[in-house]
User: Which sequence fits this backbone?
DNA sequence: CTGTTAACCTGAGTGC
DNA sequence: TGCACTCAGGTTAACA
């Protein structure tokens, strides 16, 4: 369920605790998440230090002092919690990294749509990351970029935005919110968008994501930060999960429809 | 290549 | 209570 703001909030919470810290022990419990957790993970990272923690889209990248990188994706229900080494393990706690500073980093994921991977090479060249679209806060994520990418494409703009190959990190909540902020109907075909609309959309995405990070993400049901705290962006949602309620701008009743089997909420008055 | 759909998996909520 | 069914912050692989 975590999208870019939630993943970034988790990253910000983990960074001060684990940078420079050495892995003392590794416990792998899950047989299989989205993919198998590397069976030799322990030998890869035990007694090695984390040098840096980056984010690309919804992926977290833990760079180790042996040159390798642990890649973690949280899927729909994944959590990364900082707990004491002796805590009672959650039913769905699939991986625990125990560190020299006496803190454990725990990966919990009931639905197992998440992923824990390892690469010796440049993580950005990993097959799963290599083809990702621009980072929303990249200077190059502009209206021009979106306009060029969207030409001759016959998909609803919302689905296009949620495709990580268009822009990385935008999921269902923030696609809904950004489209509302840009006054664009979610079911518009991408190739019908004008350059002007693409500019409004890219700006809306940056603005919505920035505020959501500032608010620590959106907690609807599962999401919590690495310290267990919840995100407060729910209070700023304009359309997501507000079907049947009134539009905050014009007062019309918000409509819902399914786009690519994802719930979509919009204001038929404000969004054209 | 593009576009659509099923699949991965568990838990919470609803209606009968 | 139980059962059937729907839905959920994601994404890939397999189709047409």
Assistant:
């Amino acid at each position: 369920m975590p999208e870019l703001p939630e993943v970034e909030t988790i990253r910000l919470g983990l960074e001060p605790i684990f940078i420079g810290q050495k892995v003392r022990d590794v416990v792998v419990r899950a047989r299989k998440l989205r993919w198998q957790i590397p069976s030799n993970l322990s030998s890869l990272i035990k007694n090695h230090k984390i040098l840096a923690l980056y984010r690309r889209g919804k992926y977290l990248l833990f760079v180790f002092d042996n040159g390798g990188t642990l890649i973690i994706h949280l899927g729909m229900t994944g959590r990364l919690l900082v707990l004491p080494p002796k805590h009672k393990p959650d039913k769905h706690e699939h991986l625990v990294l125990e560190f020299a500073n006496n803190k454990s980093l725990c990966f919990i994921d009931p639905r197992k749509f998440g992923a824990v991977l390892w690469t010796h090479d440049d993580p950005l060249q990993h097959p799963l990351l290599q083809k990702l679209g621009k980072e929303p806060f990249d200077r190059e994520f502009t209206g021009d970029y979106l306009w060029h990418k969207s030409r001759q494409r016959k998909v609803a703009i919302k689905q296009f935005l949620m495709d990580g190959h268009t822009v990385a990190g935008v999921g269902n909540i923030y696609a809904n919110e950004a489209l509302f902020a840009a006054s664009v109907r979610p079911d518009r075909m991408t190739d019908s968008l004008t350059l002007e609309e693409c500019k409004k959309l890219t700006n809306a995405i940056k603005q919505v994501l920035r505020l959501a990070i500032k608010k620590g993400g959106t907690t609807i049901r599962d999401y919590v930060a690495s310290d267990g705290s919840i995100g407060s962006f729910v209070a700023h949602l304009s359309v997501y999960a507000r079907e049947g309620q009134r539009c905050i701008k014009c007062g019309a009743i918000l409509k819902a429809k399914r786009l690519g089997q994802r719930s979509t909420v919009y204001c038929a008055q404000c969004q054209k």
In short: The longest strand of chain A covers residues 50-56. The mean pLDDT of chain A is 97. The radius of gyration of chain A is 20 Å. Helices of chain A lie at 4-18, 41-45, 127-130, 143-150, 157-162, 172-181, 195-214.
